[in-house]
Each structure stands twice: as C-alpha cells, then as structure tokens.
Specification:
The complex is a heterotrimer of chains A (about 650), B (about 100) and C (about 180). In chain B, about 80% of the residues lie in helices and about 0% in strands. Chain B is built from three helices and no strands. Chain B is elongated and about 50 Å long. Chain C has about 180 residues and is mainly alpha-helical. Among the domains of chain C are: about 80 residues, Four Helix Bundle (Hemerythrin (Met), subunit A), CATH 1.20.120; about 45 residues. Chain C contains six helices and no strands. In chain C, helix 1 packs antiparallel against helix 2. Chain C is globular, with a radius of gyration of 21 Å. Classes of the chains: A mainly alpha (about 650), B mainly alpha (about 100), C mainly alpha (about 180). At the B-C interface, helix 1, helix 2 and helix 3 of B face helix 1, helix 2, helix 3, helix 4 and helix 5 of C.
C-alpha cells in the first residue's frame, strides 16, 4: 500500500466481530422462533440488529479514516500442512466502505420490507433469510482470505436462491431460483479452481501474503495442452468466472432478469445493490493479480463492455418494470467492470457505491408501485400503469431522483461516478480505453432513454389499470415504505458528492480514500479542457436519452408502435434478449434432457438401478429372515450375546 | 498378611456367582440383584489393590462404584416397576415385546 | 488369625451369594444379599478402609436393598415357587459361564504375577492422616469433577424415576 502508513491492529476487536454476527444471531433466532412466537412482529430483531451493525460500521469508518486497519484472525478454521484457513477479518478503506454501504442499505430495506411484506405467510422467513444474507455479505466483504471470501460468496448465493424462490408455490419463481443457482454454480466452479490455483502457485490464501508473492509468478508460463499460458492470466480468468456468474456478466447473465421473481426488496438489496456487486468487489480486492496480465484486464473490460451494451439494448423492449431495472443493473455492472478493466478500480468502486443507492431507490420505487397495484394480475406490467404521479407523489419524486441520478444529470450521484469512469477510460494507458469510453458514452444515452421510458410510462399520461384493478385506484404506500425511500433518495443525490473530481473543484475524496488500497490508475497526462468536453458530451447523451424518451412516450406514443413495426427483426431480437435463453436451451438443456431420457432412463435406470435397488431389498429380506431368529426379544438371550462377544474378543486376544 | 491372590480368587468367585444369576434367572428383580453381586466383587478387587499398593485411587473408585450401584439399582427398579404396571409380568422370558 | 477372619468372611460372602442367586423366593434372595453385603463391609474394614465399610452398610444395606425389598413387596409375586426358576434352553449360557470360569482361573496366575509390579499413583501415608482423611483429600481436589458428576448422575436417576413413573399414570391404559 503505497506511501500511506496505516496503523494495523492485529488483536481481536469486538466491534468488527459484531458487525456480521449480529444479523446472524437475529436471523437464527427469527428462523427458529419466528413461526411460533414472532408471528406478528418478526422484524424487530433483524431491524434492530442491522441498525446496530450500521452504527458500528460508522464507528469503524471513523477509525479507518483516522488511520487504523483492523486485521485479525478469530480462530484457525483448518490447518493442513501449509494450508491455513482462518475465520479472519480485514477492515481497510475498501471493506469499510462496503461495510457502510451494505449495512445502511440493508437496514433501510429491512424497514421498507416491514410494509412491503406485510401479511405474507412467510413474513418471519423473509426477515430471517434477508438477515442471513446480510451476514454472508458482510463475511464476504470482511474476509481476509480467499476461502472465507468463498464462504460468503456461496452463502449469498444460497440466500439469493432462497429469496428468489421465496414464493415457492409459484412455478416461475422456483424455476428462476434454480436457474440462478445453477448458473452461479458454473461461475463458482471456475472461482473455486482459481482459488486452488492461487494456493497451488502461491502457497497461501491470505491477501496480505498473496500480494507480496505476486512478483514470483509475474513471468510464469505454464503448459496447457501445448499452449503456453500466462499464469496470472489463467488465475485471473478462473477467478473472473466466479465474478461473471455472481455479477451476471455475459455469458452467465441470464439468471439476473429472471431473479426478479423474488420479492422486490430482495431485488433491491441482493440483485441490485449488494450481492451482484460482489464480483466487482472481488476483482478490486485482487487488483494486483489482474493488473499483472494485460490480457486479463482486456478480458474484464471486454466482458463489461459487451454486457453493458447488450443490456442497454434489451432494456427498452421489456414491459416488466422490474426486468427493465434488472437490465439496467446488468448494464451498470458492466460499467463497473469496464472501469476495472481500464485499471480505475477506485472509480469502479465509486460507481458501485453510488449505484447501490440509486438502483436500490429505483427498485424500491418500482416496489412501491407494484405494492399499489398488487390487486392486478400482473402488477409489474408497465402497460397498465400511467398517471401515477397524482396517486403516489412521494414515490414519484423519489423515482425521479433515482432516474436523474442514473441518467447522469449533473448534481446527482450517478453523474459524478459515471463521468469519472468515462474520463478515466478516455485517459487510460490501456489501448482499449477509447473504445470503452465510446461505448460508455453510447450506453449512457441509452440508459437515460430506457429509465425515463418506464418513468414516463408509469407516472405520466392516463391511468390504464382501472380494469386490471377492478375499478380501484392505486394509493400511496404506507409511511414505513416511503420514509426509507426518502432517506435513500438523499443517498442517491449526495453519495456522489463524496467524490467530486478535481476538474469540478472537488477533492475526489472518495477515490483518494480507496486508492490507498486500490492503487492509482495508469493515466496519460490529463488535459482538463478535454475532461470538460467529455463531461459535456456525457451530459448531452443523457439529456438526449431523456428527450427521446419524452418524445416517444409522452408527446407521440404512436412512435413506439411505429418503431417496433418498422424494425421488427431487430426489435424481436432485442425483445427475446438476444436469444440467449433460446441458445442455452438448445445447446445445454435439450441435449441434457435427451441424455437423461434415453441413455440414463432406458439403460441405467431400468436395468442397473432397478436391479440394484430390488436386489438390495431382496438381500435385506433374505438376511433378515435369518437374523430375526436371533432377535427373540428376551433379555437373557441378549445378555448371552453380549457376553459371547466378550468371549470371542478374549479368545482373539489369547490366540494373538 | 493374607496373600493378594486370595482376594483375586474371592473376586472371581463372587463374579461368577453373579454371572450365574445374570445368565439364567428369569426374575427381573433377581437379575438386578445379581448385577449388584458382580459389582460387589469388583469392589473387593479394587479395595485390595489399593490396600496392597498404599494407593488411594482404588478406594475412591470403590466409593464411586457404590454411588453408581445405587444409581443403577434406582433406574433398574424403576423400569421393572414400569414393566410390571404395563404388562403385569416380571419374568424376563415372558417379556418378548421386541420379538423380531 | 487374619487368615481365619478372611476365610470366614469369604465363606460368608460366597454362600449367601449362591443362595441368593438360586433362591426361588425374591424376598429370600434380597435378604441373602443383605448378609453378603454386611460381610463385605467387614472385609472392606479389614482392607483398611473403615469409611468405605460404613458407606457400604449405609448405602447398600440401608438404601439399595430396602429399595429392592420395597419393589418386591410392591410387585408381590410369590408365585415363582410354582414356576421355573431358570430360563429354558440355557446351553449357550452354560457354555459362556464355563468359559468365563475357565478364563478367570487362567488369568488368576497372570494377575498375581503382576501384583508385585503395581505402583501407587496417589500414594498415601497413614502416619500423616487416617484413611478417611486421605480419601477426602483426593476426592475433593483431584476427583472433584468426577465427584460432582456422580452427584448429577444420582439427581438424574431420581428425576428419571419420578418422571417415568408419573407419566405412566396419566396415560394408563395405553400400550407400551
């Protein structure tokens, strides 16, 4: 860590320990006793635990700002030869930032869920799961070694599965849960291999031991099937597989839109703000490894770029409000990876930070709308919305703030972080920087367009859902939901102000704070005039997106239909999400099913397995008919058998 | 001084006497009584070893054995009473409830 | 003289033991065991531990055997006189018994050969305190945990007995 001296605290610190374990405690208690004793108010424990965790995180933030780093092992989990795995904690600028973000959002979303989930039969289950999720997320963030990171990684995956399939009676929900789980498995397989490779070649799993040893492998090439592979690239690639799965990047992205089957607070917390950003966090955490290999950086940037662009093209064609927001999440995650791919890790984390707030706000706003429309058969459909501005003023204003923020309007959080990414990409030393900048600019405009598309469709025009709501009119959500919305909207505005770039007279405090850990990006000399030009360009792109959306969806709604007819092929291609689901269905699902039905079913099942099962049953029956004679039920005979055992043992000793 | 073997012999004799009861009696109460006899045999062994080696351990084990025997008798007799109330039987070979 | 006392006590234990095991009437059996216990208490006394002798009398004769007698009277089965004393088909049991007897008398020589090599772990010296003093000293220091454990065990037995026998009353009439 360059130049900055931190005081490293290596002894056990109770407050660090409490941050993750309070939610765990609350979760376990709620899960065990919730059904019986906490039927009405299961949220008390998780909400208060999260509040405490949040306050402790703030205290830790102050500690870290004053130059302290906590790093200690709670206990050694397993020690096998040179493999050492401890349950350890590392609180440095990077993790303390994640800590504050996760706990604050999680707390607010818990509060929001009190209103949103009210009356659900699984009320207590929901709070228990979401607390458990927070625990695993905090473990992931706080870990000081890769295995614990993996533990948190899998734990959040599990909670994600449980919460996507929260309404498990619904087939689509349980299918989506399985899909998310299975696709994540593919990524995690690579991730696990990556961890093995790290251990095999570096001999340790602790971050603070990995980084000094990296130069050893910087120039190592290994042979894989007659190809010379650069070792850092191989490890980075494997680890990045995990990030692709968890952060839903191409080609493992298909689970995230389907994950919207879960309750909306879950989408906001897990599938927008925290869990899906774990991949970005991991890449940033291990940035020295990725930086060793330009190819790995190019891969990160390229994957981010493709995802970013693809999601931004799909989003305007979808009609499910949550899916649109989900695609925008995909696209913003792509942004973060683009930032990582040009070496600007601190900026990527900055965008992660601001994105968490405005995306959570978007989701919660969408949730508020859905809550108001929950009598409709499909409350997520933006085609039945419209004119909601009159009915739900608070939701309207907060949604507007979130939309402006994501569109990159100056003054809002999204502007600063997105702009920083574009600037850093433009001035990056990596040759793909300019390309990243160009696509980023394009996507910025598209983002503004599709975000304002749902905004205009939902809040302007006439309310079209009277029929679907059986004559009812929607109403504003209860206070317990709107107040978190208002608080988060402050975050969606002001979180960006922590990192106003130098060109605008700010101090970029956020980036400087993280660069203590994440290193400075390699830049060409920065020209402030060009920087202003870039900013103006991105503002123009955002405004154009909003303008087009206004034109199409408010002024002339006929245009929407016109375009979708005119470019039917492209429209269908986008509407079917680039045919990724169909492709996977053809390539993986159909052959698997064929294999299962013919080979396994006919050969294995009816011959091998049936005979094995029946045979074992027959064997059991036969031996039982022999042995039941011994089983007389008379105590004395049992005594004899016991003593007979002793006799046989004694004889054995004598003979030996 | 009595030779140590005598005590061992006495122990073994008493143990075998108890074993006869355990192996062949059908009355559950007498089965338990036989267990007590076997336990007593062990006590003699421990006490004599202690006596011959000037070691307190043996005595302490005897002490524990006595407590253990009391506990065992308590549980055993409880079960016998329970069985008798349920089945009106105290003969081991008539109680074949768990016959396979 | 010592030998005579020992022989008397040994006979006083073996013969009542055999009678107890073979007697038809459970009341007689329990009473024969009482005789055995009292002789054993004396034996323990000759083995140098007056404390254990007292405990033996108090616990066994005073508590355990009275418990046995209570149960015998409670169940009140005198009918055994009309019934078989032993279980049927006891050839396997006989074999086991013979083996044990054989094995024990084989191992007798082994044990006696070993006895000179016995070493004291917690050595005690009667000049410094009585046998009782030494037992107490180790029981309350070295073996304190085990001592407490035995206490807990007895408590569990008491609770278990009360629980088992009370529960049954409530569900009387059910099958086992």
């Amino acid at each position: 860590m360059e130049g900055v001296s931190f005081e490293v605290v290596r002894s056990f610190n109770l407050s660090v320990f409490l941050v993750p374990f309070l939610p765990l405690l609350a979760s376990v208690i709620t899960l065990i006793f919730g059904k019986r004793y906490l039927r009405e108010k299961p949220y008390i424990l998780p909400v208060s635990a999260l509040l405490l965790s949040f306050l402790i995180s703030l205290k830790l933030l102050v500690d870290v700002l004053s130059g302290k780093i906590y790093e200690f092992d709670l206990y050694q989990w397993m020690v096998v030869g040179s493999l050492k795995v401890g349950l350890g904690f590392l609180v440095d600028p990077l993790s303390v930032m994640m800590l504050c973000m996760v706990t604050s959002l999680s707390f607010l979303i818990h509060v929001y869920s009190i209103g949103y989930m009210k009356g659900d039969p699984g009320y207590y289950r929901f709070f228990s799961y979401i607390s458990l999720f927070t625990f695993f997320m905090l473990i992931l963030v706080l870990s000081n070694n890769l295995i614990q990171l993996y533990l948190g990684w899998e734990g959040v995956g599990l909670c994600s599965y449980l919460l996507i399939g929260f309404w498990y009676e619904k087939k689509s929900a349980s299918d989506a849960a399985k899909k998310a789980f299975i696709i994540n498995r593919i990524g995690d397989f690579g991730f696990a291999l990556g961890i093995f490779a790290v251990f095999y070649y570096l001999g340790t799993l602790y971050y603070h031991e990995i980084f000094p040893r990296l130069p050893q492998i910087a120039q190592t090439y290994i042979n894989i099937g007659s190809y010379e592979v650069h070792l850092p690239f191989l490890i980075s690639f494997l680890l990045f597989c995990g990030a692709m799965g968890k952060s839903a990047q191409v080609p493992l992205h298909t689970w995230l839109p389907d994950a919207m089957e879960g309750p909306t607070p879950v989408s906001a917390l897990i599938h927008a703000a925290t869990m899906v950003t774990a991949g970005v966090f991991m890449v940033s955490r291990l940035h020295p490894l990725f930086e060793l290999s330009p190819h790995a950086m190019a891969m990160v940037a390229l994957v981010g770029l493709i995802t970013c662009f693809m999601a931004a093209t799909i989003a305007p064609t979808q009609f499910d409000i949550k899916r649109v927001v989900a695609y925008s999440t995909l696209s913003q995650l792509g942004y973060m990876f683009m930032a990582c791919g040009v070496g600007a890790f601190a900026v990527g984390m900055f965008h992660l930070f601001t994105h968490a707030y405005f995306k959570a706000l978007l989701f919660l706003g969408a949730g508020s709308i859905i809550h108001a429309l929950h009598h409709a058969s499909d409350p997520n459909d933006i085609r039945i919305m419209g004119g909601l501005k009159r009915f739900m003023p608070i939701t309207f204003w907060t949604f507007l703030i979130a939309s402006l923020s994501i569109a990159g309007i100056p003054g809002f959080a999204g502007f600063f972080s997105k702009d920083e990414i574009l600037v850093y990409a433009y001035f990056s030393q990596y040759p793909w920087g300019k390309l990243v900048w160009f696509v980023g600019l394009l996507v910025a405009g598209m983002t503004a367009f599709y975000t304002f598309r749902i905004f205009f469709k939902a809040f302007f025009g006439e309310f079209k859902g009277v029929e679907a709501l059986h004559g009812h009119y929607p109403h504003e959500s209860p206070k317990v939901m709107t107040i978190p919305l208002i608080i988060i909207s402050f975050g969606a505005i002001f979180s960006g102000w922590l990192g106003i770039p130098e060109a605008l007279g700010g101090g970029a405090h956020f980036q400087r704070f993280l660069e203590q850990v994440l290193g400075h990006p390699k830049l060409l000399p920065v020209d402030h005039a060009v920087e202003y030009l870039l900013m103006v360009l991105s503002i123009v792109a955002g405004l154009m997106g909003i303008g087009i959306a206004y034109l199409v969806y408010v002024k002339k709604p006929a245009l929407e239909v016109f375009f979708s007819y005119k470019f039917k092929v492209i429209y269908n291609f986008l509407y079917r999400k680039w045919y990724f689901d169909e492709l996977y269905h053809r390539v993986f699902v159909v052959p698997t099913l064929w294999l299962a039905r013919t080979v396994v079913n006919l050969v294995l099942d009816s011959f091998v397995i049936d005979h094995t099962v029946n045979g074992s049953a027959k064997t059991t029956a036969f031996s039982a008919s022999l042995f039941r004679k011994l089983h007389s039920g008379i105590v004395n005979y049992y005594n004899w058998f016991i003593l007979l055992g002793v006799v046989i043992y004694l004889i054995y000793i004598f003979i030996r | 001084m009595i030779p140590f073997e005598y005590y061992v012999l006495l122990t073994l004799l008493l143990f075998c006497i108890g074993l006869i009861g355990v192996l062949f009696r059908r009355n559950l109460i007498i089965l338990l009584v036989s267990f007590e006899i076997m336990m007593n045999a062990l006590m003699i062994l421990f006490a004599s070893i202690s006596h011959y080696t000037k070691d307190v351990q043996g005595y302490i084990i005897v002490f524990f054995l006595i407590a253990l025997a009391a506990a065992e008798a308590g549980v055993g007799l409880t079960l016998v009473v329970l069985l008798y109330r349920k089945l009106r039987k105290v003969y081991a070979d008539e109680i074949n409830y768990f016959r396979g | 003289m010592d030998l005579l006392v020992f022989l008397y006590l040994a006979l006083g234990m073996c013969i009542p033991g055999l009678l107890a095991v073979l007697s038809k009437n459970p009341v007689h059996a329990v009473l024969w065991v009482l005789v055995l216990i009292i002789h054993q208490a004396f034996l323990l006394y000759t083995l140098g531990s007056e404390f254990l002798a007292a405990v033996q009398i108090i616990v066994y004769a005073g508590a355990v055997l009275v418990l046995f007698l209570f149960v015998v009277y409670m169940i009140n089965l005198r009918m055994e006189e009309r019934w078989r004393v032993f279980v049927k088909r006891s050839s396997l049991g006989l074999l086991i018994l013979l083996f044990f007897a054989f094995f024990f008398f084989k191992s007798l020589a082994f044990l006696t050969a070993l006895s000179p090599h016995f070493k004291a772990n917690l050595h005690y010296d009667l000049s410094q305190g009585t046998n009782l003093w030494w037992i107490a000293r180790y029981l309350f220091t070295h073996y304190l945990f085990q001592f407490e454990l035995i206490g807990v065990l007895l408590l569990v037995v008491v609770l278990g007995a009360v629980f088992l026998l009370r529960k049954l009353k409530e569900v009387e009439g059910d099958s086992l």
